[in-house]
Specification:
There is one protein chain. The protein is elongated. With about 450 residues, the chain is an alpha+beta fold. The chain is built from 13 helices and 17 strands. It folds into three domains: about 150 residues, no CATH class; about 100 residues, Pdz3 Domain (Roll), CATH 2.30.42.10; about 80 residues, PDZ domain (Pdz3 Domain), CATH 2.30.42.10. Strands 4, 5, 6, 7 and 8 form a five-stranded antiparallel β-sheet that branches. Helices cover about 45% and strands about 25% of the residues.
Length: about 450
């Protein structure tokens, strides 16, 4: 997957989310009678500018700027320049506290509204998902102690219905963030239903970087299938070696390969090492030289070749199913999903503040760009789901009481309501300095984490 592909979908995603956020400020400001001077998507040098007159006779400047990591709506304000007496009533700083509060709150609010809409579209379109079958648990793990058996299908976690492997993971994270015991309803391979108790105790799920399911001892069940190539990734080791769709791998370095998982294990153990693959293609055996690329997973170097498994349709029907909803069901699900994701995001942030979650969980623009590209490659529903998650995150982050963010301004307004007068300019200036420092620190950590992931 090319870097340009990722960058394009990153800019597209951020452009949509920032535009909607700033439109919230813009729309409510105009409804409140405040004069809007400029609507900018992005910061820095203007790439494209146009002006439009409103029905009120105002001329608003619209800007697309060079740095697509935010935006702003500039309003008439006496603190930023001289305002004619005839327009002082339209200056932002002269509005009532309720109007100013509404204008500032509208940005994050529109992010949540967008998330609800996007989730509604996702639930309406439907998606094909992995059914939540549990594979072999790690010996001595929490999952093994709970009695989970291979091919248990998870039906509910703590009373919440589960229909996919990803939903299972999210419910475990959401309900197990503070530890404790989680009742999980499963249907075993014989069709009998049981409730298994996952005893997390005081385990901190996000204390370390990595897959939380690996820490708990869960793996996803997968049927035993031959090592047949279902497809190869462009510019991957498999494609470079000449491996093709429907190739059946018979041997690797003279060792017979009986199933796909055996092939995966062999490849993982030999990063950057030349390997001889004996494959069967259209009834003809041939030898190919494959050099697995290297990636770091949980501090361990692992080989990978950029190929995925062929799954027969009969097996696929057993492993996956399609989920969709009516328009009415979808809107209810969308509202609940947005609320749940907002709550989870806020709780995870609090865990980071208290030191119970690792700062390595913070992602920056590079990781977000990668996910934008990956989800766009998977399909429309995946990309829309990605946009919804990021929109929720932007809404929550902007409501944090950090100066320079919308939440910081709202915090000042709450103080104004309590004390009966605005905070002093000196207090606001110090707050801005603190806010800049906090945001710079967070961005530094996020970019550092991004670079670490790239190196790995």
């Amino acid at each position: 997957m090319s870097v340009l592909h990722n960058i394009f979908f990153f800019i597209l995603a951020i452009g949509v989310l920032v535009t909607f956020h700033e439109f919230g400020h813009y729309w409510v400001a105009r409804k409140a009678g405040v004069k809007v001077l400029r609507f900018s998507v992005g910061f820095g040098r203007s790439l494209y500018t146009w002006r439009r007159k409103t029905s009120d006779g105002d001329e608003i400047e619209y800007v697309i700027a060079a740095i697509p990591l935010g935006g702003y709506v500039k309003m008439l304000d006496e603190r930023e320049g001289n305002v004619p007496d005839s327009e002082k009533h339209r200056a932002f700083n002269n509005q009532s506290i309720s109007k100013r509060f509404a204008i500032v709150f509208a940005g994050p609010a529109f992010n949540f509204i967008l998330a609800v809409f996007l989730y509604w579209v996702v639930f309406m379109l439907g998606s094909t998902v992995d059914r939540p079958f549990v594979g072999e648990t790690e010996a001595g793990s929490i999952a093994a102690a709970a009695g989970f058996e291979t091919k248990d299908e998870v039906l509910a976690v703590g009373g919440a219905t589960v229909q996919s492997w990803n939903e299972f993971r999210l419910e475990i994270l959401g309900q197990g963030l503070d530890g404790g015991d989680i009742p999980i309803t499963v249907r075993n391979a014989d069709g009998l239903e049981y409730t298994r108790i996952l005893a997390l105790g005081d385990m901190k799920l996000l204390a370390n970087e990595g897959d939380i399911f690996k820490h708990i001892g869960f793996s996803q069940w997968w049927p035993i299938l031959p090592a047949e190539i279902g497809g190869v990734l462009e510019q991957g080791a498999a494609a470079n070696a000449g491996l093709q769709k429907n190739d059946l791998v018979l041997q690797v370095d003279g060792v017979e390969v009986e199933q796909w998982l055996s092939l995966v294990k062999i490849i993982r153990e030999k990063p950057n090492k030349s390997m001889q693959f004996l494959v069967l293609r259209d009834g003809v055996e041939m030898m190919l030289t494959v050099v697995p690329q290297n990636r770091k997973v949980n501090e361990e170097n692992q080989g990978y070749i950029g190929a995925y498994q062929h799954i027969p349709d009969t097996v696929r029907q057993q492993l996956v199913h399609h989920i969709d909803y009516s328009s009415l069901q979808a809107i209810t699900k969308a509202v609940v999903k947005t609320w749940d994701m907002s709550s989870l995001t806020l709780r995870v942030l609090w865990k980071m503040v208290t030191g119970e979650a690792s700062l390595s969980n913070i992602s920056g623009p590079i990781t977000i760009a990668t996910y934008a590209g990956v989800t766009a490659s998977i399909g429309l529903v995946s990309f829309i789901s990605f946009l919804a998650v990021i929109s929720v995150s932007l809404g929550v982050l902007n409501l944090l009481p950090i100066p320079m963010l919308d939440g910081g301004h709202l915090f000042y307004y709450l103080i104004e309501i309590i004390k009966g007068s605005p905070v002093s300019e000196a207090f606001e200036l110090r707050g801005q300095q603190v806010g800049i420092a906090i945001l710079a620190l967070l961005m530094s950590v996020a970019i550092f984490n991004d670079i670490q992931r790239l190196v790995q």
